[in-house]
Every structure is written in C-alpha cells, then in structure tokens.
Write a structure and sequence with these properties.
It contains 15 helices and 29 strands.
Length: 519
C-alpha cells in the first residue's frame, strides 16, 4: 500500500490503539498532517514544500481528517501529555464515530483487543506488529521495523512528503521511534538509522520528554524487578522478570543490572500487548546483545539492536505453540543453555581452524560493483556504509575500495586484493536491492547513495580461497571488525584467502554457492 492510494478518500479518521503511546501518537500525527496538506498538493502543487509559514493556510484546504483513540481511559502519562501539548497534536478521546469514509488504524490493527471497534465504510491499517495480517492494497504491515514511526517515515518519504518541513512532525516521529526502540537501543534496520540521522527535530523538547517518562509507581516496579533477578553463574548471565510497564523501564533495569561485576549478559522481560517484551544488555565481546535478542525470538517474534543493547518481542500465540507447558522464564533459561553451548569462535590472529577440512575454491566469473572510497569523500574522512547488516565504519583512502555483490552484500577490499581478483569495466553498476547501500560522512552528517558512484568489475578465475562449511554457529573475529565479529550459521562457509591466514571471514551459503566453484 502507498499513501497516495488513500488520497481518494476525503473524510478520514486516523485511529490509534487504546491508551496510545508515543509511537502511535507520533505516527498518527505525521499522517494527519499529510492528509491535511494533500488536497492543496492536488490544487496548487507549486505551493507544496514552501514551508511552515503556509501550514495554517494548508489546514483550511486539506482533507476532513481527525486523529482519535478509544478505550476506557484518557491519556494520563506525563510524557504523553507533554508531547501532545507541546506539539499541538489534535488528538481526541472518543466513544463513537459517525461511520467515516475511511478509518485508518495506526500502530495497531482493526479487530485487535486493544483497539476499540468503530464502524466505517472502508478500513485501512498501518502497523509494525506481527499479528499474522499481511500487507495488501489497504494495509501496510512491516513487522521487521522497530516502530510504526519508521513505517510512516518511509511511506511519507515515498509519497514525496518532506517531514522536515515542520519541526513538530519531525519531532513527533523521532520521539515515537525513540520510545519504541527503548531509547534507540533496539535499532535494527537502515530506515530506523536514517530517521536518527536525518530528522530535524526539536532537541530541547526531546530532552524534556526524556526526563518525563517515569512515575513513582514505575520506579517501584523497577526496584522490585532488580531485587528478584535470577543469576546463571556459569554464563555470568541474569534473567529478570518485571511487572507490566512502559518498555523503557526494561531498559532502565537492564542498564542497572549489567553494571554488576559478575554479570556480562542480562535479559529483562515482561508481559505486554500480544506477548512479551525483551530488553537485552551485554558487555561480553563474544555475545552481542543484538545476536542474543535475535536468537531468543527466532521463529516466535523478532529482535535486534546494537552490540551492547538490544530488544525483542515474543508473540504470545507463537510462544504457546512451542512452549510445551513452560513459562517464558523457563523457556529463556533453556535457550541460554542452547545459546552459550551452541557456538564456536574463530579469531583472525589464531591458526587456521580445522585446516584438514578446507577445500580450495575460486570465484566464478561474474559482475560486481565497486566504489573507490576517495570518490565518496576525501582521503582520511571517516564515513559509515549503511547496509542491511548494520553500519560499517571505514576511513577513506586511495588503496581502499567498497565492493557490492549481486545480492547487495557489501565489504571493503584493499586495492592490491582488488587488482588480483577483479577487472574494472567502464560501465555503471546497478541493482535492485531491498535497501540501496548508502554512505554517511560522519563529520558532516551528509548522506550519499553508493550506487550512483558504483562501477562494474568482472571477477576472473583467480582469487583462490580455502573454505569449509561451519559445523555449528560460529563467531568470526576478522581484521575488518564488523561490529566486533561476523556470525555464521551451520552450513555457512568459513573462508580464508589462500596465503593469508589473517584474512578470514564468513559467507552465507546461499551466496557462496552462486559465487564460488571448487578447484
């Protein structure tokens, strides 16, 4: 679904879930502004983008749109009341609606238990929660994104709507992302990171909102949870159950627990709408928080984040299917055994791992993309390459290129290695990827798409490597330091450049089979 598909409707109600949080309010407000401005865009397109000075004029010409929520209780949390007041968000608590032409539920899905049911001529949904509903021409469900604000940001951008034209809209979206990602600790997708870098929000208001989150009752909840932790000594890990609370409370508890000298990893969880919310913290080099969050939620939810801070969600319905009568706490204890006993470690400074099992391979002839880092930024400039796997920090220099594979995978390569394996072609490199690789100048904060700079190159029959399938989940510490280590699953390929045992890395099996051949 795209927002322009909904522009044929004139009488629109945007409905948030009962007791709406910052993500719902921020997302709903951004969409409210879009529909209020859309009719002017149809009538006088030369005026669109002229800025906030025209906002009051736009309002008189836009769609008939309302922003509402139902349920028993009105918004009462101090941070939400401050957000709504300071941003002038026209959110109304309603008991009934007059059969609107379009009812658009945001950060929730029509028919769910936390959404008051209203009749409408047409129903549409925008959400990021995985309830089994699939996207279609009247629904946009992106469960791989950490916030509904991210979904709305992407949809507004695709519709040509500049959210930075009004600082209030940008601030509402940023705060929605901030709160639903546990203070940005659970960011896992390039679109989330784009919002952090590019939204021009009111920093002073965000600071005020940050310090208006918790009540005395929530402080007591945190204290009780911390005092009742379960410690697994052999893994230096703590598992903490909290009473239902704002997701950010879990982060506060985790930040406190991880400071204990005998704890390297902690998992905080509680019950929430539709399942369980997890917050993960790690100070262990070999156990990243984002990896553990993904492991704990695999197949029954979703998880991700950063190396030291991450989070996740486990669907109640999915957990019931695999629980076998266990509580979630019992399940987490079992998964910890499985996780810590389930991986090997390979370090680029060690001797070659299992050399007797390695076979020789070479790259098949194929077309790849490459970019000279000095074409992106001057020598010595630090920038980050934005990929689906995360942000890779590289310093621009004349002997460093960035390679782009056929599936959009990205990796740095030195010129001497490039010259031995590839032949440059005088043609641009193109590709259709889920997320086009981009680069951000760290100092300037300026984005730059990588593909417009990419040129084609052809791999020859050289480039001999030694490789073997991984027998279990493996963490590879390589010279490029991708977020401290690269992770490979059983069956993925552990690779060494022939003649250079320090050049060790992992290639996903699906990519390896299409790129390499045995010699």
């Amino acid at each position: 679904m795209v927002l322009t598909d909904l522009s044929r409707f004139n009488r629109i109600v945007i409905q948030l879930h009962d007791n709406p949080d910052a993500d719902a309010v921020g997302s709903g407000y951004a969409l409210y502004r879009y529909f209020r401005l859309h009719r002017l865009a149809e009538r006088e397109p030369h005026l669109v983008g002229s800025g906030y000075a025209l906002y009051r004029y736009f309002r008189t010409l836009g769609k008939d749109v309302r922003l509402v929520y139902g349920g028993r209780n009105a918004v009462s949390k101090s941070n939400m009341k401050l957000m709504i007041s300071e941003l002038g968000i026209p959110l109304k608590h309603v008991r009934e609606l007059d059969n609107p032409e379009l009812l658009l539920t945001v950060d929730c899905q029509y028919g769910e238990g936390n959404v008051q049911r209203f009749e409408a001529q047409n129903i549409s949904m925008i959400d990021h929660h995985n309830t089994g509903k699939q996207s279609d021409d009247m629904a946009e469900i992106r469960s791989h994104l950490v916030s509904c604000a991210t979904v709305c940001y992407a949809m507004l951008k695709d519709a040509g709507f500049d959210v930075n034209e009004d600082v209030r809209t940008a601030t509402a979206l940023y705060y929605g992302l901030y709160m639903d990602s546990n203070q940005l600790s659970e960011i896992r997708h390039p679109l989330d990171r784009d919002m952090i870098d590019f939204l021009q929000y009111d920093k002073s208001l965000i600071t005020r909102l940050k310090y208006a989150n918790f009540s005395i009752a929530e402080l007591k909840t945190a204290g009780i949870a911390i005092s009742h932790n379960n410690y697994i000594e052999k893994y230096r890990t703590a598992i903490v159950k909290s009473e239902p609370c704002d997701p950010n409370i879990l982060g506060v508890i985790g930040d406190f627990v991880i400071q204990v000298d005998s704890i390297d990893v902690c998992v905080i969880f509680n019950e929430c709408r539709g399942g369980y919310k997890l917050s993960v913290r790690s100070c262990s080099l070999e156990s990243s928080a984002n990896e553990l969050a993904e492991f704990l939620t695999a197949g029954i939810g979703n998880g991700g984040g950063h190396f030291t801070k991450a989070g996740g969600f486990i669907s109640e319905a999915s957990f019931e299917e695999i629980s076998e009568g266990r509580t979630l706490e019992q399940y987490l204890f079992g998964k910890m055994d499985e996780y810590f006993d389930g991986y090997d470690v390979v370090h680029y400074t060690d001797d070659i791992s299992c050399p007797e099992k390695l076979l020789r391979y070479r790259k098949k002839p194929g077309i790849y993309g490459y970019v000279k880092t000095t074409d992106i930024a001057g020598a010595g400039t630090e920038f980050k390459v934005r990929t689906l796997e995360g942000d890779v920090f590289i310093t621009s220099r004349s002997d460093m290129y960035i390679m782009i594979g056929a599936q959009g995978e990205i990796y740095p390569v030195e010129t001497k290695v490039f010259d031995s394996k590839y032949t440059p072609l005088d043609e641009p490199f193109t590709g259709n990827f889920e997320y086009a690789p981009s680069v951000i100048d760290v100092a300037a904060g300026k984005p730059c798409d990588l593909l417009p700079l990419a040129r084609k190159c052809r791999s020859g029959l050289g480039g001999i490597i030694l490789a073997r399938p991984l027998e279990k989940f493996t963490k590879v510490f390589n010279a490029w330091n991708y977020e401290a280590y690269m992770a490979g699953n059983r069956g993925d390929m552990l690779c060494y450049t022939e003649g250079d045992s320090r050049d060790v890395y992992v290639v996903k099996r699906s990519i390896f089979d299409s790129v390499y051949e045995q010699v």
